[in-house]
Write a structure and sequence with these properties.
single chain, seven-stranded mixed β-sheet, about 35% strand
């Protein structure tokens, strides 16, 4: 955990998924705590990507949030949807990739 992997593709720096976590929140209000290898909290910054194992169902069409390290809840939306919700229902135990864009979390592929 905490192993950042940066690479350049066509002159644009990219970051691979760099953290794996388990959700500790409730349905449609996901949360997790992440620390680096030294035990320090991971700072929320644009480009941060997390692969998350959900603990509860996520209901389609319902506003969904994600809270990192006890901070402010941020909207978790689908990459393909401008609204505050995901385009699909996910069951507990789903593994999702999310990326923080500086304003909200985007669920990749939904």
């Amino acid at each position: 955990i905490g192993d950042n992997k940066f690479y350049v593709d066509s002159g644009v720096a990219k970051v691979e998924t760099n953290y794996v976590a388990t959700d500790s929140g409730t349905s449609n209000a996901l949360a997790c705590a992440l620390t680096d290898i030294n035990g320090g909290s991971i700072a929320l910054a644009a480009g941060l990507s997390i692969r998350l194992l959900t603990a509860n169902d996520i209901t389609k069409g319902t506003a969904t949030t994600f809270t990192l390290n006890g901070g402010s809840a941020k909207v978790l939306g689908a990459q393909s949807r401008p609204g505050n919700n995901l385009a699909t229902t996910l069951v507990a135990g789903a593994i999702i990739d999310i990326i923080y864009d500086g304003t909200r979390w985007q669920c990749v592929g939904y």
